[in-house]
Amino acid sequence: MSAPSSYEQAAGSRLYVWVWVWLLALTGVEVFLGYEHLPLNLMLTLLMGISVIKAALIVAYFMHLRFERLSLFLTLVPALVLCICLILIFFFPDSLRLHELRPQ
Amino acid sequence: MAEAHTQAVAGSRWSGGVAPYAIGSKKLGMWLFIISDALTFSALILAYSYVRVASPDWPTPFPFFPAIVYATVMTFFLLSSSLTMVMAVAAAHRRDHRRAVQWLLATMAGGAGFVLLHLREWLHLIHEGVRPFSNPWGAPLFGGTFFGLTGMHMLHVTVGVIYLGVIAWGFGRKRFSSEDVEVSGLYWHFVDLVWMFLFPLVYLLSIKMP
Description:
heterodimer; A: mainly alpha; 81% helix; B: mainly alpha; Four Helix Bundle (Hemerythrin (Met), subunit A); 6 helices; 75% helix
């Protein structure tokens, strides 16, 4: 059980408000990027990169994983990384290759 | 019980051998559920990306208003409800029952706002003629992937609002512990996390350019 004391140390609602502000700011950047006419590969890389950063912020601070024991971190994070790799399998190699092949 | 274990072994050289993660079984159970649920969403997103890559005429129908504005406001609702959830967990650990229930109710309001806005968006698309296997713009499976992905997520948000309601009711009556509030918070943050991927993949990559 996570000791309430560690929760209090870690807490300080100011930290969480800052994480929230960062998440909102990154969302704003994503919406802005959506309207930029960027090449597909750059757009995908930026959007997915920002999403992974946002997910990491949520897992680390809101879900408190940063303040848990290392063994829990080492058990959960590889599984989550695997899920993210699964999401990107088709988007990165195949979509870019097919995009190049297709007549514009 | 886990706490007693942890305390019993804390001073010995076997510290960690009994409870290697030093968290309660409910919390560990929720984490394991989250991993399996993450795999479910990954599979749905994988299917979406496969169909999208395989279709030459994928529609990009979302205009700035209402779709993108609504989706951005929905993202704001979910992120803010995550913040109020963190406050609820902190209050619960301080044994401040009244404040914890108030924060939980605020979190539920954020989730309900999200679902209502999203349903409006759904009705709008259905009104425009989008069906799971046909739509007026192009690749017929656009509707299937859109409704499948966002519907699965909306189901999670709806279940989450009900779950938080049960937790708020029980914690307010001191039947549930602060750990129960924390575990429900893990679920809620995960639902928020999934939306962080769905928002760019479903909406921002399908913007109707002016």
